[in-house]
Amino acid sequence: MSDAVASPTGTGPIKRITLWVRDIEASLAVYRDALGLAVIEDKRLEGAAIGRMIGLDSAALRIVHLAPPGADHGWVGLYAISETTPRPMAALPKPASFPMYGQATIVLPTTQMDAVVARLRALGSVTFIAGPTEYVKTTAGDVTPPGRYSEAIFFDPDGVPVSLMGYTPL
Question: Which of 1, 107, 121, 126 is deepest in the core (most CB within 10 A)?
Answer without folding.
Answer: 126
